[in-house]
Amino acid sequence: MNSLRFKVVSEAFAKSPVHVESPSSNTSDYFGCQVFGPKQMAKYLSKETYRAFSRVLRGEAQFSPDVAEQVAAGMKTWAMDLGATHYTHWFQPLTEGTAEKHDSFIEYEGMPGGSVIEEFSGKLLAQREADGSSFPNGGIRNTFEARGYTAWDTSSPAFVVDDTLCIPTVFVSYTGEALDYKTPLLRALHSVDEAATAVCHYFDKEVRKVYTYLGWEQEYFLIDEGLYAARPDLLLTGRTLIGHESAKNQQLSDHYFGAIPPRVQAFMKELEFEAYRYAIPCKTRHNEVAPNQFELAPIYGETNLAVDQNLLLMSLMHRVAARHGFRVLLHEKPFAGVNGSGKHNNFSLGTDTGIGLLTPGRTQEENLRFITFLVNVLMAVYRHNGLIKASVMTAGNAHRLGGHEAPPAIISAFLGSQISAVLDRFANASPEEALVFDPVRRMQLGLPYIPEVMLDNTDRNRTSPFAFTGNRFEFRAVGSSVGCGCTMIALTSAVAAQLMDFKAEVDSLIQKGEGKENAIVQVLQRYIRESAPIRFEGNGYSGQWREEATRRGLDCECSVPLCYDAYLSPSSLEMFAKTGVLSEAELRARNEVKWDTYTKKVQIEARVLGDIVLGSVIPVATRYQSMLLDNVYRMHQIYPSDKAAALAEPDTATIEQLSVHIAAAKTAVEAMVEERKRANVIADVRSRAIEYHDKVLPYFETIRYHIDHLELLVDDDLWPFPKYREMLFIN
Ligand code: ADP
Ligand code: MG
Predict the structure, then answer these.
(1) By the number of CB atoms within 10 A of the CB, which of 60, 496, 663, 671 ranks highest?
(2) Which helix (H) or strand (E) holds 706?
(3) Among the listed residues 474, 607, 461, the one whose alpha carbon sits nearest the alpha carbon of residue 539
(4) Which residues contact 324 (CB under 8 A, 6 or more apart)?
């Protein structure tokens, strides 16, 4: 009997929920208590500093060294009151998570060796040198300048985790090239703000700022930590590389929205308490489709902050899970045969005057504005569909996209029948007709009064990657394990560039003497026709859609390394240059990192798979085989040969099946290792990634096929790794 597996299984069964104490009956009592927000500032900063710093936060003043010094002093006292002894610049390098290097507050008061005091200067708060070389940078350091620095993004407040004050920062090279996700995101948000505000002025001169809103929904799996530790594939790659499907998985759809298991409920409760401390406004929690899969979603907020909160939440999830004897799996596809995890990004634009620009209105004017923004978003997604797909493509997410559970690996937009009809009528009306104010004809002519309630979530298409859901678009192709930054950079830059084009076209018509409304209508009508190929209301999983999408000229590439080419297409280069979000050099460097990361992920998985097969599975299968052989041998010693052969027939058949699968698995592993060696010597990072995708990856399925058959054949007592039924159903 395999001791580790059965030990962890019986321990997991015996666990009961951890008791969780509510910090207070009113969430508002402690909401944001770990964050240096307005309340904390008012308490720890002098009136003048508070006022000066508020002006910095509103973008009305520079963050001067003087103010920085005062803010740092107040922040230090606040953090120390919460028990902090260290501080760190918290940033988002081009890996999938965040990075931090903790320094303690202590400094010698005078001579080294003397007494120490706690110090935290404005300089340390505002800016620090960071060793760029330890983080992926795609050769930026060779091209530009070796050193990098981190600088506080004042729009994202500092927070205290455990004993450490964390300061959200950008990470850039000394010559200003972005080495992270935050820098281009801030540039992109700025660009959308300017472009959208300019377009808003056609309708309302009062608008001074347009915000980009993001509401993410985080899906994840929980697994008992003992079971996790007994699976080397989960431990090292975040997903199972082998494992036969459980006899029961999600066929009965009995997990989705079902009762939350008690141990999980305790975890969720504590996670929410933690999240509230960090001002993350968690709103919904529920079971997801797959067994042991769950979701958490906060109330949406400004994008930069929402991105940071999601990254912080992911790290809180790991911390809290450990206290409950769980591990959180954020991988997009931890288990074959059941749904994977995504991170829906709900995206909208809104003005400082409180108007949702993707919210249908009540008046003629409001609806023209709504259609303007809706159509420009559609047009942006149409023009840059390949890029937007590339922005969600990773080695992990590739297992999810294109499966019959997640959006397909083709970007299309779903509007629902009502809005579709509105756009089609609008596109075909004469400009004068489109603007007629008559309430009856308005209904017919595409600028109808649309009751909001009818639009809210009426018809939803779960197979669409980019769906309009009443007042926002829901981008569903984002992976669960990565931050939202990468995708939001691509999406918001594309929208910004599109709004700039729109404004230029409308202005040029106006200059030629066209009336403002007519000019807007004319350009929108052309856009609706031009972007028609991106609209798809049918089943995104069907085979016909792929053919149809190819005919429509949409990007249908599904090889991850080839998808990344979209970042360097002429239209992407032009779009990123025009919005000032990323230069060609930055884009090239980022792609190097993407290709290299892809290669490394597949490489690690291939090694782990090889080790498991050669080091554990084949030896166990061979041991079982020799037990059977022993049995056959003894039969022959007791019975006459004919009878022995007949009696031993089931065993000999199994012995042969075992041989077949053992041999096939071994051959496949050896061939995979050869391919890996061939790929490893390819110098060009893109070609190497392509080789890994085309030549190494395909072996995974072959190997798994044989291993999963061995799992079915080998005595359950001998099987060393927790099985799917154990990982998916114990909680
Ligand atoms: P569903 O699973 O049905 O899509 P959820 O309630 O799980 O819905 O998540 C919806 C997400 O969309 C939440 O994060 C919510 O705050 C967010 N959201 C709602 N309205 C907007 C909006 N106008 N802009 C951006 N996000 C929004
Ligand atoms: Mg959703």
Answers:
(1) 496
(2) helix 698-713
(3) 461
(4) 17, 18, 263, 266, 267, 270
What are the residues facing 108 on neighbouring strands? 116
Q: Give residue-wise pLDDT tens across range 220-262.
A: 999 999 999 999 999 999 999 999 988 877 777 777 667 788 9
Gap from CA of 423 to ligand 2 centroid (Å): 24
Cα–Cα dist 430/434, whole Å = 6
Counting beta carbons within 10 angstroms of the beta carbon of residue 683, is it exposed (0 to 12), middle (13 to 18) or buried (19 or more)?
exposed
Tell whether the model's pLDDT for residue 457 goes beyond 60: no
Q: What is the largest CA-CA distance in the chain?
A: 106
Q: What is the 469 CA–ligand 1 centroid distance (Å)?
A: 9
Element spanning 630, H or E:
helix 618-638
Question: What are the DSSP calls for 20-76, one per residue?
Answer: ---S-S-HHHHTTTTB--HHHHHHHS-HHHHHHHHHHHTTSS---HHHHHHHHHHHH
The 3 state secondary structure assigned to 387-449 is HHHHCCCCCCHHHCCCCCCCCCCCCCEECCHHHHHHHHHHHHCCHHHHCCCCHHHHHHHCCCC
Distance, in Å, from the CA atom of 161 to the CA atom of 74, rounded to the nearest integer, reads 17
What per-residue confidence (pLDDT) applies to 445? 44
Cα end-to-end distance, the chain, whole Å: 23
**Does the beta carbon of 364 sit less than 6 angstroms from any atom of ligand 1?**
no
Q: Is the CB of 468 under 6 A from ligand 1?
A: no
Contact 468, 536 (CB under 8 A): no
For 422-456, how does the pLDDT look when each residue is reduced to its tens digit (9 = 90+)?
Answer: 898 889 887 767 765 444 444 444 444 444 444 54
| Nearest-ligand number for the alpha carbon of 281 | 1
pLDDT reported for residue 450: 46
Question: At 614, is the pLDDT very low, low, confident or very high (cuts 50, 70, 90)?
Answer: very high
β-strands 210-224, 326-329: how paired?
Answer: antiparallel
Centre of ligand 2 from the C-alpha of residue 370, in Å = 22
Q: Which is higher by pLDDT, 124 or 407?
A: 124
Q: Alpha-carbon distance 73 to 67, whole Å?
A: 10
Q: Which ligand is nearest to the CA of 347?
A: 1
CB 196 within 8 A of CB 210: yes
Asked if residue 299 has its Cβ within 6 Å of ligand 1, the reply is: yes
Backbone CA torsion sign across 642, 646, 648, 652: positive
> What's the token pair of residue 636?
């022959």
Comparing CA positions, the residue from 425, 697, 684 lying closest to residue 558 is 697
- DSSP assignment letter at 135: S
Strand partners, 128: 150
Helices (H), 485-533: 485-511, 516-530
0.85 exceeded by the pTM?
yes
Q: Report the residue count for the chain.
A: 731
Among protein residues, the one whose CA lies closest to atom 3 of ligand 1: 457
pLDDT tens, residue by residue, 256-292: 667 788 999 999 999 999 999 999 999 998 888 888 9
Q: What is residue 659's three-state secondary structure?
A: helix
Half-sphere exposure of 124 (CA within 13 A, CB side): 20
The Cα–Cα gap between 374 and 524 comes to 10
Looking at residue 522, its pLDDT comes to 94
Over residues 80-95, the pLDDT tens digits come to 999 999 999 999 988 7
